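Researcher: Here's the sequence for the chain we discussed earlier.
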Amino acid sequence: MKKIIFLWAILSIAMMCSPVSARKELGIFNSLSVGVSAGTTGIGIDVATPVTPHFAIRGGVSFMPGISFDADVDVDLKDPKLEENSSLNLTGNMKRASGELLVNYYPFLSSSFFVTAGAYFGGNKLLKVKGHSDKLAEYVNGGNQASIIIGDQEIPVDKNGNVSGGFKVSGFRPYIGVGFGRAVPKKRIGVQFELGVQFHGSPKLYSSAGDLSGALADSDDDFTKVMDKLTVYPVMKVRFCGRLF
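Model: Thanks. This is the structure I predict for it:
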């Protein structure tokens, strides 16, 4: 992600340093905007430039704040002496950072309607989970084994009674969307509204010890129910931008 952002910065500098008369004559890279956005991808910052009157390129980064929630999962006790610990409360956190490189197509020059396509990259840890139980720590330190069950997979409980892991998706996520608003506004300030989806594939379960093989099976636990609905990631965001030149 850092390499792509660096290349985008070099491209932006090159555009600004190229002859202004040439850019205006060809209608290519003849202006540049900086935008900030908010939506289901988090808080974002980007730059955009027109390639032709019908196309514009956007590149930037988004930061998802640490939105968290709690859910209960089943506990598998190999020697079930703690039957009252049949479930464990886990905390999930959706904090992550990702980059984006998108192309807007404006089919009608008289309208700000656009179709956009490209990809999001980085931020492959969609959801991080952790939990703790003093009783399970005592149980494991007594020479026993315990693990939580998510779908048809198990995440082991360590000797301190801690569980950590989460769900991974593809690090490269194709994206399509539609919206209204110019990537580079005709006036000094502009607004964009956008709806789309990232195609990130089926989430994979991992633990602090590494990735876990196999797909998630049908299950009644809360985390699996959430993941079953997230084979694609919905994108809705509002972008405020300002034209630099």
